[in-house]
Amino acid sequence: MLSAKVRRKVAPANGDADNSADKQDQLLLSSTIFNGEDLGPFVRKAFASGKPETLLHNLRHFARSKESEIEEVCKAHYQDFILAVDDLRSLLSDVDSLKSSLSDSNSKLQFVAGPLLTSLDSYLEAQTVSHNVNLALSLIFSCIKLLELCSRSNFHLSRGNFYMALKCVDSIETDFLDKTPSSTLKRMLEKKIPEIRSHIERKVSKEFGDWLVEIRVVSRNLGQLAIGQASAARQREEDLRIKQRQAEEQSRLSLRDCVYALQDEDDDDGLGGVIGDDGKDGYSNGGGNGLLGFDLTPLYRAYHIHQTLGLEDRFKQYYFENRKLQLTSDFQVSSMTPFLESHQTFFAQIAGFFIVEDQILRTGGDLISRMEVENLWETAVSKMCSVLEDQFSRMQTASHLLLIKDYVSLLGVTLRRYGYPVDALLDVLSKHRDKYHELLLSDCRKQIAEALSADKFEQMLMKKEYEYSMNVLSFQLQTSDIVPAFPYVAPFSSTVPDCCRIVRSFIEDSVSFMSYGGQLEFFDVVKKYLDRLLSEVLDGALLKLINTSVHGVSQAMQVAANMAVLERACDFFFRHAAQLSGIPLRMAERGRRHFPLNIARDAAEEMLSGLLKQKVDGFMTLIENVNWMADEPTQGGNEYVNEVMIYLETLVSTAQQILPTPVLKRVLQDVLSHISEMVVGALLGDSVKRFNVNAIMGIDVDIRLLESFADNQASLFSEGDANQLKTALAEARQLVNLLLSNHPENFLNPVIRERSYNTLDYRKVMIISEKLRDPSDRLFGTFGSRGARQNPKKKSLDALIKRLKDVS
C-alpha cells in the first residue's frame, strides 16, 4: 500500500516535468520559426533522442496556434472592409457624371486642336529632316577631312617621310577614329593604323640595319683618316723641330745669314671635312655631306620614329646591344693574317667606332649615355692592351714592334682629342720599352758585325762632294770646315761611316719609340741604351775585330785611326740624341761621360804598339853585333840604331797621314820606351858578359840619335809632347849617364838619385855596373900597370857596387 501511494505521488511529478519540457521546447521552436532561424538543430536533437514524434507534434501545435491568430485578425478587419465597400458604391454615381463631362470636353478639344496638330506634325517632320541633313553634312565634312588625312599619310609614306605619316596617323586615331560614322571605314582604320605603324617600324629598322652595316666600313675609313691627320700633324711638328735644330746649329756656329720665314699651318686637325650638318626629314644628322659619307641620318631618323612610336627605350637598348656586338667583332684578330699587316685596320676600326660614338653622344640627344660610351671604351682599352701584350710578346723584330708602337701612339693622340683616356695603352708601350731596345741592340749587333767583317782596312776614297757630305759631314767627322779637294782620301776606312749610320739609326729608332709614349723627358733612357750600344755592342765588336782580324801594322794603324775618328763620332751621337730628345746641347754636354769605346781604343793602340815593337825587336837583334869591348867609341851610331831610325822615320811619315797626333805620340812614346828597355835589357842580359866605356859611349851616341829623332817631332807635335817622347828614353839615358859619370857613387845620394836617376832600379844598376871594365883590365894589361894608382872613377864605381850589394 505504501509503495502504491508512493508511485501515485511520483507519476504526477514526472508528468508535470514532461509537460514543462514540452512547453519549453514549443516556446523555443516558436521563437526560432518566428525569427526565421534554422530548424536543423531541433531536427537533429529529435532524431538523436529518438523522439521525432514530439517535434512533429510541436510543429503541428505551432501551426494550429497561427491559424487561430489569422482567424482572429480576419475577424477584426472584416467590419472595416464592409464599410469601405459601401463608401465606394456611394462614389460610383459621381464618377459616372464626371466621366461624361470629361468626354464632352475632349470632343470639343479634338475639334479645335485638329488643324494645329496637323501643322505641328508637319513642323516636327521638317525639323527632323533638317537635323538629319545637317548631321549628314557634318559627317560628310568629317569623312572628307579623314580621307584627306589618309591621302596625306599615303603621300608621306610613298615619299618616305615616315614622321609626317605617323603624325597623320596619330591625328586620325585621336581626332576621327571614334567619331567616324561609317562602321566599315572605322573597321578599316582600326585594321590599317597598326599595319601602317608596323610598316614604318620595319622600314626604319631596315634602314637602321643597313646603316649598321655601312657604318663599319665608314668607321674604318674614318679611323684611318683621323690617324692619318694625326700622323701629318706629327710630321709637321717633326719638320718644325728639324728647323729649330738647324737654327740652333747655325746659332752655335755663329752664322748670321739665317733666313726666317712665316709658315702657314693648315688648321684641319679635326674631321670637319668629314662631318656635315644636312639631312632629310629635318634631322641634324651630324654628317650628311661628309668626305667619307659619314651620315647619321638613318640612325637619328630611326631613333626619332621610335620615339614617336613610344618605343624609345627599346630602340636605345637595341642600338647599344648592336653596337656592342660590332665592337666585339672588331676585337677579333685574324690568325691567318700577320698582325703586322692587319694592325692598322684593327686599330683604325676601333678609332673610327669611338669617333662615331663621340659624335652620336654630342649630337644624338639621349640615344646613348656617357656612361655607356665610357664602359665601351674601357672594354676596348682592355682588349687592345691584351692584344698588344700578346702580339708584343711574340715579336722578335724591333722594326715591327716600332711600327705597331707608332700606330698605337697615333691612335692615342687621335682619341685623346675626343676625350678618351689612353694612359693604359701608353703604359703597355712603356712596359715593352726594354724588350724593344734589346731587340734593337741585337739587330745593331748583327749589322755592326757584318760591317766590320766587310772592312778591308783601307782608307776610304771619296770622289764626289755628296759622298763627303754623306760619310763625313753628316756625322760631323770633319776636322776643318774647309771642304777638301776631290778625290779625297779619308783617314778612316769604310767601317766608320757604316757604324755611324747604324748608331744614328739606333738613336733615331730609340727616340722614335720613346717619343709620344706619355713620357716627356726620355733623354736619360735614350742615353742609357746608347751607352750600352757603344760600350757593349760596338766596343765589343771592335775588340773582337782587333783580337782576331788585325795581323799587320797597316791594319792596326787603320783601326787605331778609325778609333780616333769614332771618338769624334761619339760626341756627335750624344748631341744628336739630345737634339732628337728636345734637350739643350749644354745639358747634354754637362752629362757626358768618358769615351765609351775606350777598351777597343786602348786595345787598338796596344795592338799597334805591339806590332811596332815586334818590328823594332827585329832591328834590335842587331845589338848583338855591338863590340862591347871596343877600343874606340862608335861615331855614327851602331848598326841597330840606324835601322831603327830609318824605320821610325818611315813610320812617322806614313802614320801622320792617318793617325791623329795624340795617338801617334802615345804609340811613338810606347815604342821608344820599349827601345830603351831593350837597350837596358841587352846590357843586363847574359849575352853581354862585360863591356867598356867605349861601348857605353857608343850606346850614348845611339840614345842621342833617338833623342834627336824625338826632338825633330816638335814640328809634328808640340814642344811639350816632344819632350815627353824623350822621357820614354829616360831609363837608357840615365843608365848611360850613370855609367859615364865620374862619380857613380852619387847614385846612392837620395836627392841626386831622385833628380837624375829616378827611373833606374838599383838591382839592374848593380848587375850592369859589375860588367863595366876599365881599359886597364884588358888581358895582360895588369903587368904593365902593377903598382900604379887606382882610377878614382873605378874606385867610386866599386864603392857603388859594394854598397848596392850590401843593400840587396
Automatic annotation (TrEMBL):
Residues 1-10 have a biased composition (Basic residues). This is Exocyst complex component. InterPro entries: EXOC6/Sec15 (IPR007225), EXOC6/Sec15_C (IPR046361), EXOC6/Sec15_C_dom1 (IPR042045), EXOC6_Sec15_N (IPR048359), EXOC6PINT-1/Sec15/Tip20_C_dom2 (IPR042044). One of its GO terms (biological process) is intracellular protein transport. It comes from the Eukaryota. Component of the exocyst complex involved in the docking of exocytic vesicles with fusion sites on the plasma membrane during regulated or polarized secretion. Involved in polarized cell growth and organ morphogenesis. During cytokinesis, involved in cell plate initiation, cell plate maturation and formation of new primary cell wall. Residues 1-22 are annotated as: Disordered. Residues 425-771 form the Exocyst complex subunit EXOC6/Sec15 C-terminal domain. Gene3D superfamilies: Dsl1p vesicle tethering complex, Tip20p subunit, domain D (1.20.58.670), Exocyst complex subunit Sec15 C-terminal domain, N-terminal subdomain (1.10.357.30). Residues 58-227 form the Exocyst complex component EXOC6/Sec15 N-terminal domain. It comes from Dovyalis caffra. Belongs to the SEC15 family. Keywords: Cytoplasm, Exocytosis, Transport. PANTHER family: EXOCYST COMPLEX COMPONENT SEC15B (PTHR12702:SF1), SEC15 (PTHR12702). One of its GO terms (cellular component) is cytosol.
